[in-house]
Amino acid sequence: MVNRQILFLLFFLPFIGISQSEDEKQLKEIYTTSLTNGESYNWLSYLSNQIGGRLSGSFNAEQAVNYTKAELDSLGLDRVWLQPVMVPKWTRGIKEFSYLENAPGETTNLDICALGGSVATPSGGLKANVIEVKGIEELEALGEEKIKGKIVFFNRPMQADLIQTFEAYGGCVDQRYSGAAEAAKYGAVGVMVRSMNLRLDNYPHTGSMSYGDLPVEKRIPAAAISTNGAEMLSTVLALNKDVKLYFRQTCKVFPDVQSYNVIGEIKGSEFPNEIITVGGHLDSWDLGDGSHDDGAGCVQSMEVLRMLKETGYKPKRTIRVVLFMNEENGLRGATKYAEVAKEKGEHHVFALESDAGGFTPRGFSFDCDEANFAQITSWKSLFKPYLIHYFEQGGSGADVGPLKGNGTVLAGLRPDSQRYFDHHHAENDTFEHVNKRELELGAATMASLVYLIDKYGTVQASNIKG
User: Fold this and answer.
1) Sheet harboring 252-266: ordered strands across?
2) Most buried among 72, 144, 207, 358, using CB within 10 Å?
3) Whether the model pTM is above 0.85
4) Per residue in 80-110, pLDDT tens?
5) Which helix (H) or strand (E) holds 296?
C-alpha cells in the first residue's frame, strides 16, 4: 500500500503547482483576517479574566463550557452541541504551606503546591527528615531502610541543553506522575517533587500524578516545590542531612461528575462523511487562569472555523472544532470523543491539536505515513512567507491521540517552546503572558493547514479510496 501511495504522489504532486497562486491567495487572506480582524484574543481574555482557571469538574469549567458553546452558536455553524463525559473532581483546598527546619525554631518557608490528585497531609501537617534522589530508579538501591518514615525529595531537573523543551519535560515528568506511588512502596510518608521548569523562580508547578493500584490507606501526600526552593533544599541537605521538612495541604478527591466536550462543525459540501477535527482542551489547572495551557489552543481552534467562514471558503469536508474536557488529569474528554466517533462509524481523516502554548508558531509535527507526509511537505513553500518552517514526523497531541488508526493523519501545532515551561501548570500561566500577535499567527497557521488538507484531502482518504 505504501508503494502505491508513493507512486500516486510522484504522479500527482507536480500538478499541485497549478493552483499555487490560488492557495497563496487563500493563505494570505487567512493571515490577514486573523491579524486584523481576529477574535481569538478577545475570546481568550474572557476565558482567562472573567472565568479563570478551569479545573476539571469545577464551577469554572462549567462556565467555560457554557461560554464557548454560546460563542460557537454565534458563528452560524451548521451544528453546535455538548457531548457529556464523566470527569474526576479534585479540589486543592486552602493554600499549601511548607517550611524547612534547620534547628528547633529555625525555619525557612518554601513555595510548594499540591500535585493534582494527591491526598491531603494530616490536618496538622506532616514533618519528617528528607532524602534526596534524582529519579525513581534510585529508590530501589536505597531500599526501605533508608526511605521509611522520610519525605522523598525528587530533584531531577529538566535537561537544559535540549532545544526541544518537551523532550526535556518528558525526561523527568515520571517523578511527578509516579513518584509518590513508588516512594510509598518503601515506606516514605510523603514526596516533594522539583517543579517541571527550566528557569529558576519561586513558582511551584502542579500537574497530574497517580497512585496506580496503591490502596487508599497507603497513599502519601505529594507536592511540587519551586525550582528556587529545590535548589535551596538540595544545598541545605548537602550540609545537614538531619534537617526536617514540614508541609500541609488539604486537597480532596470527590466522586466523578458530569461535564462536556464542546463541539461545533461546518458540514462538508462534497465529502461530508470525511471529518477534519481541530481542537484544544478546555480544562486547565487552577493556579493560574490557563491562558497558555490550553485556553490559547481552544480559541485558536474556534478561530479556524470562524476564519474559514469569514473568508468565504466553503469546505469540501466536514470541519469540526472540539474543545476537550479533562486533558489535564484523566483525558476523559478525548477518550469519550473517540469512543463515540467509533460507535457512530465516523471517518476522521485529519485531526489537529494546539496544546503547546500561544507562542510564535514554528510549524507542525505529524503522526502519519510517508505518503501523507510527502504531500504535506510539498506545501512548505506556501508557509515560508509566514516563517513557518518546522514540518516533522513524530507526535501530535494527547487529545487527538485516541483517534489514531484507520489512516487518520494526526498533527500538533508547534510554537516556539522556550518560554512555555516558565508558565506550564503554574500561577503565572495568565493572560498578560500571551502576546496577541503570536496567538493570532498560530490561529492563522492552523487554519491554513486545515484549508490545504480540506482542499487536497489526505492520500488514503481521497486519492486512493476514490
Assistant:
1) 79-91, 252-266, 317-324, 271-281, 347-353, 409-415, 361-367, 390-393
2) 358
3) yes
4) 999 999 999 999 999 999 999 988 889 999 9
5) helix 296-310
Q: Are strands 222-225 and 252-266 parallel, antiparallel or unpaired?
A: unpaired
Three-state SS for 356-412 is CCCCCEEEEEEECCHHHHHHHHCCHHHHHHHCCCEEEECCCCCCCHHHCCCCCEEEE
Is the confidence at residue 3, as pLDDT, over 70?
no
| Alpha-carbon span 278 to 353, nearest angstrom | 6
Identified catalytic residue from 39, 182, 327, 353: 327
Tell the residue number behind the cell numbers 485558536, with chain if given. Answer: 300
The C-alpha cell of 311 is what? 473568508
Nearest to 219 by CA among 146, 94, 110, 126: 126
Which residues in 195-268 belong to E strands, given as ranges? 222-225, 244-248, 252-266
343 catalytic residue (yes or no): no
Q: Which helix (H) or strand (E) holds 279?
A: strand 271-281
Do 245 and 101 contact (CB within 8 A), yes or no? Answer: yes
Distance CA 230, CA 192 (A): 9
